[in-house]
Design goal:
The complex is a heterotrimer of chains A (about 300), B (about 325) and C (about 240). Chain A contains eleven helices and two strands; from the N terminus they run H-H-H-H-E-E-H-H-H-H-H-H-H. With about 300 residues, chain A is an all-alpha fold. Chain C has a domain at about 1-75 and about 160-180 and about 195-245: Rossmann fold (3-Layer(aba) Sandwich), CATH 3.40.50. In chain C, the strands form two sheets. Chain C has a six-stranded mixed β-sheet with strand order 6-7-8-3-9-10, with helices on both faces. Classes of the chains: A mainly alpha (about 300), B mainly alpha (about 325), C alpha/beta (about 240). At the A-B interface, helix 4, helix 9 and helix 11 of A face helix 5, helix 11 and helix 13 of B.
Chain lengths: ~300, ~325, ~240
């Protein structure tokens, strides 16, 4: 970034918007993590791998269908479902047998999944860098506040809040959403009224996987799709849900905004240490509120 | 309770192993000596983690950071200053313990999972700074060609040196676990509320345990520098931290020497699997899943149970857990 | 010795303890009684600092303790046992009691000195006093329910408390175990001069042991007084004894 020399209002505004648009992707991924945390009380370490999987699957689908606009939109929709399906298989085959066990075992299981997914991606897709073209509609940039903003980022700025509202409506207005939320607060209660808690957990886990996959698919046109993208995102989303309040969806939004914005301003002011800024923000937030900004569900 | 006879047998057993290890460099090729040295370093690291994670019951999720801080401190002093090497060797563990104290102060205020998450956050901050601060830490390149004192420069010499350190660390950790502090740490693991109710300052004990554990992690970090002559940010990456966690689990949480076994298994598997396949993490993942489903008490825990002829779920005294 | 005034604690909208009052004088055995959910355990949790009150005061030996953490309150001389056997299941009975003895002697931070040589006499003495000496090397989790409850009290005794709080000490015990426990509690009070505060469902135990009784209902203190005064109290009969 050579913009560091002339920091004008336009530069700040564009960094701000890009930061928020990046926060939207973080939100989609971390809301999934937060949802799993809220209901299962397990930090799913494999969440980043599912995100990476989402990006690779989206790339493969889009390429298979010729790489055009229609292929992109199809990939964007289909990829999360593929990831959710993979999650469902892992959950029903192995994970669900551990619900009665210590929490640490659940956590370590997700770590094992992360290790396995990481290498499976390497086996199927190799270690090359891949990139996915955004559809024609979202290519190029528009000028806002006299500075260019990529159209795709604008798309993210719109898509993020829509997904947030959809998630909110889903968890508040559908039966399964309400049950999952109740299970997050008091799982004995949910079990006591005759609901199969194991399936509630399965649902939460799969929804988490879906959101991870969706985040991966959404991010794929803006970054190079490659191995290792799981490692960065998982720590970022961990921190986001921690500062937002474990299991709180709006907390994930607040955390993502803090993370995205501090990161983009880090790039503006001190590019070399850009990745340090969000971490400092996290530490400051946790010194101020050790249990996160918004109320944790448990 | 262990009888005097059993205890003597155990001490003799350990002595025999050490004696065997002393003569090993004469018998086997250098490559194996190198692998053993790496196992020793990793054992120190895993044992230090097990003090807080296995015996203390804390979710110390980012122990690797303190390993890295120990290694970097020693490396920077050796490579960039003209101070005597001994200063670096001493400063490494102290820096790690200081970082442990600072990060611990934030973490012990929180309950288990939050403790782990916050530690990952703070640890990642340290990692991120190390990763980017090219002028000071060498950034993602790390620091290479660190001048190791001539006394330790050959692999055989560092083998003996690190074996000695490992034995000292084991003795110290054993004494700590057998001390009132160690006993109370385990009591806190089993029932923190009850400990508070009998007047124990739970957080302070946990904090002291963290400082001790991070000090020894720093020792392991310095030993890493002695063996490899290099440092890089991956030492502080959270994946390594979870790998150490697996070593403790694999060897057996609630056992004294389990982490050594875990470290030995993981390091040798990685080395020898690395010869045949590049998909080492896949293997590690599958091992971990097998472990979770079939051996939750770890290999050492399993062996101990079998030797005692008890059901794995049987309740055991900490006396025995620590002793075996 | 202990003075609780207008103590309040609510969980969300539910007032578990609502203007509770309690006085315990030195050397007394005081019982707290009341129907299930009257707030007895919550009251004990407030006194020992495991919960923080929303209002009111708790004074111990003239000092306000309601804002102190549990371990500090314990160091002031208040020890307690729990309703559900809250012991260290994986440790031997000896080690269970040793934990509190070490804490009382401020040796919990001692490093590099074998624990098996510290506080041994004191620990065995306590185990002997409660009658668990022959079981001192058994794993706590493997003891019978009654012995676990006794061990619970033994742990509290390790703190050399001046005020001992017992939460339903005989719950779930057989008649013989109950008799043993009552004898033990009486002995502690008479021989060692301990002040004891306890709550209990078994009215025979309450009226057989207590010097004074405090009656709670819905978190409120209905009355405090000598056993026969309490027996005569109309409100108590309506609220509590009538249910029997």
């Amino acid at each position: 970034m050579d913009a560091g020399h002339t920091i004008t209002f336009a530069v700040i505004a564009s960094h701000f918007l890009v930061g928020i648009s990046r926060a939207m992707i973080l939100f989609v991924v971390s809301s999934g993590l937060s949802f799993v945390l809220g209901v299962l009380r397990v930090p799913n370490v494999a969440h980043g791998s599912l995100y990476m999987l989402g990006a690779f699957v989206a790339h493969t689908i889009a390429t298979y269908f010729g790489g055009g606009s229609v292929a992109f939109w199809f990939a964007l929709i289909a990829s999360p479902f593929v990831v959710a399906l993979i999650g469902l298989v892992a959950e029903r085959a192995l994970f669900c047998h551990l619900y009665e066990r210590e929490h640490l075992m659940l956590l370590l299981f997700t770590f094992a999944l992360m290790l396995i997914f990481g290498d499976l991606v390497k086996i199927f897709w190799g270690a090359d860098y891949r990139s996915l073209m955004a559809p024609d509609l979202l290519r190029g940039a528009v000028t806002i506040f006299s500075s260019p903003i990529p159209r795709y980022n604008l798309f993210l700025l719109i898509a993020g809040p829509i997904i947030a509202v959809a998630l909110y409506l889903f968890s508040n207005n559908t039966l399964i959403g309400k049950i999952a939320r109740a299970a997050a607060v008091d799982r004995e209660m949910v079990g006591a009224i005759g609901i199969n808690v194991s399936w509630v957990f399965a649902f939460a886990f799969v929804l988490g996987c879906f959101l991870a996959g969706l985040g991966g698919a959404l991010v794929s046109p803006t970054v190079s799709v490659t191995l290792g993208m799981d490692h960065d995102i998982i720590i970022e989303t961990f921190l986001i849900v921690t500062i937002g309040g474990l299991g709180n969806m709006w907390g994930a939004m607040v955390g993502s905004l803090i993370f995205g914005i501090t990161q983009s301003f880090g790039v503006l002011f001190l590019p070399q240490f850009a990745i340090v800024f969000p971490y400092i923000a996290v530490v400051l937030v946790l010194m101020w509120r050790p249990r996160g900004i918004l109320k944790s569900v448990w | 309770m262990a009888t005097v006879d059993e205890k003597r047998k155990r001490i003799l057993g350990y002595a025999a192993v050490v004696l065997f290890l002393l003569f090993l460099p004469i018998l086997v090729p250098r490559f194996y000596i190198y692998i053993l040295t790496v196992i020793f370093v990793t054992s120190i690291l895993a044992m230090s983690l097990n003090l807080v994670a296995g015996h203390g019951g804390l979710f110390q999720f980012h122990h690797g950071v303190f390993y890295g801080i120990g290694a970097y401190t020693a490396a920077l002093i050796l490579a960039k200053t003209s101070l005597p090497p001994l200063v670096g060797f001493i400063a490494g563990p102290i820096a790690a313990a200081a970082a442990g104290l600072i990060i611990g102060l934030f973490c012990v205020r929180l309950s288990r999972l939050y403790f782990g998450m916050l530690q990952i956050s703070l640890g990642s901050l340290v990692w991120a700074i190390t990763f980017r601060w090219y002028d000071f830490t060498g950034g993602d390149d790390g620091i290479h060609g660190i001048p190791i004192p001539a006394l330790l420069s050959s692999i055989n010499r560092s083998y003996y040196f690190i074996l000695t350190i490992l034995v000292i660390v084991m003795i110290l950790l054993y004494l700590i676990l057998k001390s009132p502090f160690g006993g109370i740490l385990q009591a806190i693991r089993d029932n923190p509320d009850r400990c508070a109710a009998v007047g124990i300052n739970v957080r302070r004990h946990q904090l002291v345990a963290i400082v001790i554990a991070t000090f020894f992690a720093g020792v392991a970090g310095v030993m890493f520098v002695v063996v490899e002559g290099t440092v890089f940010p991956d030492l502080m990456f959270w994946v390594l931290s979870l790998e150490i966690f697996i070593m403790c689990l694999l060897g057996g949480w609630f056992t004294f020497s389990g982490p050594i076994l875990g470290a030995a298994i993981i390091v040798s598997l990685r080395t020898f699997a690395g010869v045949y396949t590049e998909y080492w993490t896949l293997i590690l993942g599958i091992i971990l899943i097998l472990l979770i489903f079939f051996l939750p008490e770890g290999v050492m825990g399993f062996i101990t149970e079998k030797m005692k002829g008890k059901e794995p779920e049987a309740l055991r005294s900490t006396e025995k857990e620590v002793d075996q | 010795m202990l003075t609780v005034k207008n103590l309040e604690k609510s969980f969300d909208d539910f007032k578990a303890v609502n203007r509770a009052n309690l006085d315990v004088a030195e050397g007394e055995i005081v019982a707290v009684i009341g129907p299930n959910g009257a707030g007895k355990t919550t009251l004990f949790n407030l006194i020992t600092g495991m919960l923080k009150p929303n209002g009111g005061t708790i004074q111990f030996k003239g000092e306000e303790i309601s804002s102190l953490p549990p371990h500090r309150i314990c160091k002031k001389g208040v020890a307690r046992s729990f309703q559900v056997a809250n012991i260290f299941h994986r440790l031997s009975a000896f080690r269970n009691v040793q934990v509190s003895v070490l804490s009382q002697q401020n040796k919990s931070m001692t490093l590099f000195h074998p624990a098996k040589r510290i506080a041994v006499q004191e620990t065995y003495q306590i185990l002997e006093n409660v009658g668990l000496l022959d079981k001192s090397h058994k794993i706590a989790g493997s003891l019978s329910h009654g012995d676990q409850r006794i061990l619970e009290i033994a742990i509290a005794l390790g703190n050399k408390p001046s005020l001992l709080i017992l939460d339903e000490p005989t719950a779930g015990m057989s008649p013989e175990e109950t008799a043993t426990t009552i004898a033990l509690v009486k002995n502690l009070a008479d021989a060692q001069g301990l002040t004891i505060l306890f709550c209990e469902h078994d009215m025979d135990v309450v009226f057989g042991v207590a010097n004074r009784i405090m009656v709670m209902e819905h978190g409120r203190t209905i009355t405090q007084g000598k056993p026969d005064e309490v027996k005569k109290n109309q409100e108590v009969q309506r609220a509590y004894l009538g249910e029997e």
